[in-house]
Amino acid sequence: MSTAHKTAEEKKEYFDSEEELERKVEILAEWVRESKHFIAFTGAGISTSAGIPDFRSGVNTVLPTGPGAWERLATGTTKQPDYRKKALSAIPTRSHMALVKLQQEGILKFLISQNTDGLHRKSGFNPKYLAELHGNGNLEICKGCNRQYFRDFRTRNALQVHDHRTDRRCENCGEILYDTIINFGEMLPQKALTDGFANAAKADLCLCLGSSLKVTPAADMPAETLRNGGKLVIVNLQPTPLDKYALRINGFIDNVMERLMAKLGLEIPDFILRRRIMVTKTEEEGFFGKKKEKLTLRGCDEQGYPYTLFTKIEAVLGDSKITYSTSKEPFIIEAKDAPLKGTAHFKFGFQGHYAEPPLNVDINLDDLEKNVTKYYLMEYDPRQAKWLNFHETSLV
Question: What is the set of active-site residues?
């Protein structure tokens, strides 16, 4: 189903003058300072500066990502974009990172997103305060036991619009897994829907970034803030149905958010790619009563859900000259000839969307209690193509 803009007026892009932009952002900053329950609502427009095209930008858009997906479909245009990235290798924008900082400071209470590109989660935004209404391209779920699986690859591979089955099965119960993308005519995930409306109703300020506000029921959430007496601010290039009820800011989202953060006295953090791994040491009964120890390693997200991150893990245990290597998830290292003691030397191989080189780390196996999972955090700077550190961590 295409929801492309049809008229020239709908496709027209508007820009405030420098003076008008400054005045409006000052008002927004004051409203943010006064707010008790400030929320944000994001659409495809927030990710265009990351190189991900939106849906409704016209053929003559100023955006380097070019015409939106529905516009290209409706007009049959073959105009090529100046800048485009795949979601898996896109870097979260200055606006994504500004929202992270606002949440960390306790200013932004909740974020409602229509985006499926996964950049909010990748940016480091706390998932406890995030509702992804239209799903996440990196997430698949088991409908049998409700287990979640994150992947460092695109989970959707079905050819039919309403077929969401993937070619993988749940490790826990064996049921077929499903991607989480929501297409037109499909029900939104209940928790995201409930949390979104609850926070929209409670909000005294809702900041909409890069949404046409035409797709319901998502677009009903900013309207819910209005119905309950809250203020609405819309940052978009094209008109929306709620403009007459809002403080409308016509400009690039990153420009607006950079000005807002400066007025609030907050620095926008740089994006650092954070990966987590869970490590568990177990002991099993072997032949003739002999104990057999093994290590189980796998990627995970900040809440402990399995996350397919690695392509291969190699390990050298202690002073052994033997290299244990496995490419099957979960990654299991069995010490057949030596106990799991001393220092283990690991080499992690990644999917490489950000040109991540293999990471070599040491883990003291004596610090691992049997049947107790430990979590470690890896931080990578994609701009420098450099791993920064590796250390033990906890879940959020």
Answer: 134
